[in-house]
Specification:
Blueprint (H helix, E strand, L loop, with lengths): L4 E2 L10 H14 L9 H20 L7 E4 L2 H13 L9 E5 L4 H12 L5 E5 L17 E5 L11 H11 L4 E5 L3 H4 L4 H4 L3 E5 L10 E5 L15 E5 L5 E4 L13 H14 L6 H11 L5 E3 L8 E5 L4 H9 L3 E2 L1 E3 L4 H6 L5 E4 L7 H15 L1
Parallel strand pairs: 1-13, 3-4, 3-5, 5-6, 6-7
Antiparallel strand pairs: 2-8, 7-8, 9-10, 11-12, 12-15, 14-15
Length: about 375
């Protein structure tokens, strides 16, 4: 039996040795809290956090003070909704738009506002025959949520054009980009896109779980959604206490940060820049599986992942069977219900690769799938 073949990179990236070593080194040699002391070790931690923040900022071409560390993309996307819906001017905003490409984390927080009566109307952007957002269908709304790459289909969306189209209809539209899958495969320039918010998870690119990035274009414009230590510059006591906040990013980072994960994130970003994308593996498997009549491939050949369904076989049954051959891949609805409904299926099978995968892995997976489908 072959050792584990892990082809579920889109769910979570395996950790490079450089990430592991940086985190272990921090925990065993340099650990202290950040922003809480003036001793030599505390100062070193502050520098390590600043270095990681700068690396992330350069990675997406952002100003360093616009990078806020969160616990993940889900946390970031929920915090965006909380931040926006708590602003004094929010009462004047009433509409938002999503698309069927969205992950649950991108869409549900906005629909929850709708259910609670805190926003008036939802629009769904149309998709073309290739499941790309139709630029001319982008509606006039107050908030636009954009999934830069579907975690089922692996197609990159033209985020810049989508934002431009939205701004032609409403110059004040606030745009929120979920880049959780896109960040792995394509270069991001937040200044070129001119998005208002952008988020991604560290574990998708090889850092530890529990760390996310939230980019806020006009960070000083917004009041924070969380309160605690490290964000307050000065408290004015009296009958009714008042306080003066630090500027971004500190005012959005109340409490102790996930320090170990932040330090590993820097190495994950540096490591990702050396990866070629694994397109040769995806292309090989696409070509081989497309020869099997019982398999319906959902993705294009040049997509960043390979998704498919099998005639007369439930995706969960397939997942259990392929697992007996020590193959790890994703089956189900990928927390992306809407695109599966658009495809008229309940779930799909997804293969996604990382730099640890080889052509031998790809050939083994194809051979096993052929055996199971017969």
């Amino acid at each position: 039996m072959k050792e584990i073949v892990y082809m579920d990179a889109a769910a979570s990236w395996l950790k490079p040795q450089s990430v592991i070593e940086s985190q272990v080194g921090f925990l065993t040699k340099n650990y202290a809290n950040a922003g809480r002391g003036i001793c030599a070790r505390a100062g070193m931690v502050d520098k390590l956090i600043a270095d990681s923040r700068r690396t992330v900022a350069e990675f997406i071409n952002a100003d360093v003070d616009k990078i806020v560390f969160t616990s993940g993309a889900t946390d970031s996307l929920n915090r965006v909704v909380n931040i926006l819906s708590s602003q004094p001017w929010y009462a004047e905003m009433s509409t938002f738009a999503v698309s069927d490409l969205d992950h649950h984390s991108a869409r549900l927080p906005w629909e929850n506002l709708l259910h609670e009566g805190k926003i008036r109307k939802e629009f769904v952007c149309e998709l073309d025959e290739d499941f790309n957002i139709k630029i001319d269908s982008v509606p006039k709304v107050d908030f636009l949520i954009i999934t830069a790459m579907s975690n089922v289909l692996g197609y990159k969306q033209n985020v810049k054009e989508i934002i431009n189209a939205a701004r032609l209809k409403n110059p004040n539209v606030i745009t929120v980009v979920d880049a959780s899958q896109y960040i792995v495969h394509e270069k991001i320039d937040v200044k070129d896109w001119d998005c208002d918010f952008l988020c991604f998870s560290g574990h998708k690119i090889g850092s530890d779980t529990g760390i996310g990035v939230l980019y806020i274009k006009d960070a000083d414009k917004y009041y924070p959604d969380k309160f605690g230590g490290g964000m307050i510059n000065k408290v004015i006591t009296g009958e009714k206490s008042q306080w003066i906040l630090y500027s971004s990013p500190e005012k959005f980072e109340a409490g102790t940060l996930p320090l170990t994960q932040i330090i590993g994130l820097q190495k994950a970003v540096e490591n990702l820049s050396n990866w070629d994308g694994g397109h040769d593996l995806i292309n090989y498997m696409y070509d081989e599986l497309s020869k099997i009549s019982k398999i319906k491939i959902l993705t294009n050949r040049d997509a960043c992942m390979l998704s498919f369904v099998i005639e007369d076989m439930h995706v969960l049954d397939f997942g259990a069977l392929v697992g007996t051959y020590n193959i790890c891949l994703r089956v189900g609805n990928m927390c992306a219900t809407w695109i599966h409904k658009k495809l008229n299926i309940d779930g799909s099978i997804r293969i996604s690769v990382g730099p640890w995968n080889t052509m031998d892995d790809a050939k083994y997976v194809v051979d096993v799938i052929k055996k199971l489908v017969k």
